Structures are given as structure tokens and as C-alpha cells.
Amino acid sequence: MKKSKPQTVPDWLRENARFGAPKLAAALGVCTGRIAQIAANEGISLAALKAKAGIARNQVAPGEPPPPPPPPPREPPPIKRPRMASETRAGATERFDIHKSDKAVTADFILQTPQGKALALAEALQNPKFKAAIESSQIDLGHFEIVRFKANSWDVTLKVEHKPVTRTNHQFWVEWKRISALPLALALERLVERVKPAPAVKPPKPTGGDRMVEVALYDMHFGLLAWHAETGEDYDVSIAAELLADATCQILARTRALAPEYFLIPIGNDLFHVNDPTNVTPQNQNRLDVDTRLARLIETVEHALEAMTEAFARVAPVKLLWVPGNHDPQTSYWLLRVLAARYRDDKRVDVDTSPKPRKIHLYGRNLIGFMHGCDIAFGKEKALAGLLADEAADVWAPDQYREIHRGHTHKKNELWFWGAETYGSVVVRTIPSLVGTDYWHFSKGFTGGPKLAQYFVWNKSYGLESVNDVQAAREFYHKEKG
Asked: Are 239 and 296 a contacting pair, CB within 8 Å?
């Protein structure tokens, strides 16, 4: 009997092709993919084998499972946007679609990165191309806030120098809503627009250089409101600005002939009556009588201080010194920062914005300490002499004339007020004020005293030369407002 020739796997596949790949895989004990791999290695097409075996294309061979049901119909594709001129057939390029109204802004934009690189929204909003698109639309996003956004990404293939290159497209849809403009924010924005370097001005010609004038316009309380029907006098922002200008003119008229080396002007000491829109004192939360909106107050004080500084700087250089009060620890500080920016290139004006609440100034043989005094308890003034000695240890020297100048109590007729007291070698001097009388002071009986500012003439070699009062006419405080 003649032995039959053993069949190889490819021959077996050809003869049993009608059973299909799943049945053949089960017979050989391999996966379906292995059957396809064997057929491919031998150049055998299962479809061709099925055709040779007389099995139609869609006919199920014996033992083969039925085909899966057809997939459900797809949703209609989205409307395609027109392709931009710079696009290729392989994929989309970057685009920016921006719409704006009075209350909102929407942007639908695409940015490209190397394949697989992530792109966050914050980074996308800082993209130079997006920022240029926003600027070309004349939109200031600083006035808007993001209320919602969507993000998507996909890979595309572009032709770069006739070669296919894969990039990742990042699509963002963002909606902004306009922020309600706060009066304070608008006032600050207007001030920033005005803060430009002062023009280069040559300092005044050198003088004898043996005197310095300290201008003590303490406790002006810009923003305090007093009504003559309640307190016997009026006071508001406009009156405070007029008083500051009048005192400046008086001091200049008296000191111009002295040819001072410079003017020293402490700024702060409750220059502002309020520190923020709550209209209460920052520490004790005492309710205050306030004249106007904080925005108008900010602009008025900035203009008044700039006018005062310019007036003194025409005669001699000016040194501005920040000394915070209990009413204006923040408002007075940032105002000094504004003036520092204003005069940063002007050699006539030097602005000390050191954050220390107490300052030390050395002029020749004179050592002068500045503070508001609100944090020093009544009856503890003697401690100020030791405080000055500690904080000025590096400049403390024999044969000095030493004084501490403080504000806070406003008037000489207040029950706890002393004009000047001496503790050892240190004179502690409390500076009066031009401020009007508000209802709180009137109800406590702190009324009737003269309205005073002061200025001091310091001799570099001999110490304090003179203490001078600057009084305000009573007519300033009697302007009927209705």
C-alpha cells in the first residue's frame, strides 16, 4: 500500500479554506492572527482561497460565526470651515476668531505645538500670536474675567518643505465677562497713566549749606468731613487742599531768603483720613465721617502733594520722608511710591519709601526722629528717648541736638497734649495740625484752639535755630455747603 505524502500547513490551509480563519485556528490550536501570519508568509490569501473553494465574498463558511451587525449610521459631520490660504490638505494651521461686545468677549482659536506637547490655557493666553490678535481687535482683557472655557487637541500632518510633519493642534474656546469698574481701580489706573518721569531739571545752585528747613504739615486728614451746623466749622477735601497750598506759600515766603540746603518733608502722619473704602480706622474699626469717594480723594491728594513738591523744589532740593499714621498706613505708602516713580530721574527730589514706621534723620549735629505716635501709650513718652538711642545707635554721638517729632493729637488744647517735653538729652515734640474739627472731636470738647502747621530751621553746626508756627485764616473753615 502506497503511503500518502504528509501535508504541510500551507497545503492544509488551501484544502480547508472554506472553513474560514476562526475554524482553522481552532483546528490548529492557534489564534486567528497566527493563521493570517502563516498565510502571509506563504503568499496565500485567505480571500483567494475562499474564492477558489467556491465561497462567495459575504457567504459564511461552515463553522464560521455570523458577521457582526452593521454599525449604526453616523451623525452628519460638522460643517467644515473654509480652509485658509496657508493651510495644506494634510491639516489645519493656527487661526483666531474673536468677537467682542460691551459686556463680553469670546475667542475661538487654534495654536500648534510639536507633536504630543501639552498646552495649558494660561500658557495659550500668553502666546504672542494670540496677544497680537487681541490687540488688533482693540480689546483690553484687563477689564474682563474668564467665566467659562473649553479645550480640545488633535494631531495633524502638514507639509513642510515638501515633507510630511506631524503637529498637535490645540483648540480653545474662551468667554470673558466685563468686570464692573471699581472707582478705586479707575483712580489708580488714571494715576499710573500720569506717573511719567519728571523732565530732567538741574538742581538749584549750591547755597551756603548751613541750614535745613523741616516742613511739618502733620495730620491733614484729607477726606475728613465736618459740617458747621454740628461742629461750628466746615472741612472737606477741597478745604484741605487749599490749606496745604496756603501753608506752602507761607513757608516759602519766610524761608526763601535763608537759602536752605534742602527741605525735609515728612509725608503720612494721617495725611489721608481713610485707608480704604470701608471708611473705618484700620486698627480699631472706628466709623469715620468721610467727605467723598476714595477715587476722588486719591486724585486730589496726589495733585496737591505734587504741586507742593514742585513749589519747594524751585527753591531748594526736597527730601520726602514716609511716616505712616494710624488712619493711612497703606494709602500714604503707595502715594509715596507714586511720587518716587514721578521723580525717579529728577535730581531735585529724593523720596524715602523705607517701610520702617519710625525714621531717623541726621543733619550735621542734629539727630531727628520721626514717628506718628499713635502706638505709644499715654504717659510712656519717656520711653521714646531710649527708643531713639537704640534705633540711632550707629549715628548717636556726643554734642548732638536730639529731637523726636510726633503727631496724632492734632491740637494744643487737647487734654493730653504737650508742645514739647525734654527727657534726658532728647526733646519730644508734638506737632499741631491745620485739620478741621469733626463731630467726634467736637463731642469730646477738643475745640477752640488755633489751627497750626509748623516748620523748623535747623543749623548744621548749632542745632535747632527756630520753631515757627503757620496759622490758617478762620475763613478757610467757614464755607457754607448747604
From this structure: no
The pTM score is: 0.56
Structural contact between residues 309 and 201, judged by C-beta atoms closer than 8 angstroms:
no
403 in Cβ contact with 368 (< 8 Å): yes
Distances 145 to 105, 141, 322 between C-alpha atoms, Å: 9, 7, 35
Point out which residues pair with 404 in neighbouring strands. Answer: 369, 428
- In 3D space, the residue among 389, 391, 368 whose CA is nearest the CA of residue 212 turns out to be 368
The residues that bridge with 370 in the sheet, in sequence order, are: 359, 405
Residue 71: how many CB atoms within 10 A of its CB?
Answer: 6
- DSSP-assigned letters across all residues of 37-66: HHHHHTT--HHHHHHHTT--TTPPPTTPPP
pLDDT of 46-81, one tens digit each? Answer: 666 666 555 555 555 555 556 566 666 555 445 344
Best CA proximity match to 222, nearest among 8, 435, 68? 435
Going along the chain from its start, the domains and CATH numbers come out as 1-65 (no CATH), 95-178 (no CATH), 183-477 (3.60.21.10)
With a CB cutoff of 8 Å and minimum separation 6, the contacts of 361 are 264, 321, 367, 368, 369, 370
Nearest CA to 318 out of 334, 306, 330, 327 is that of 306
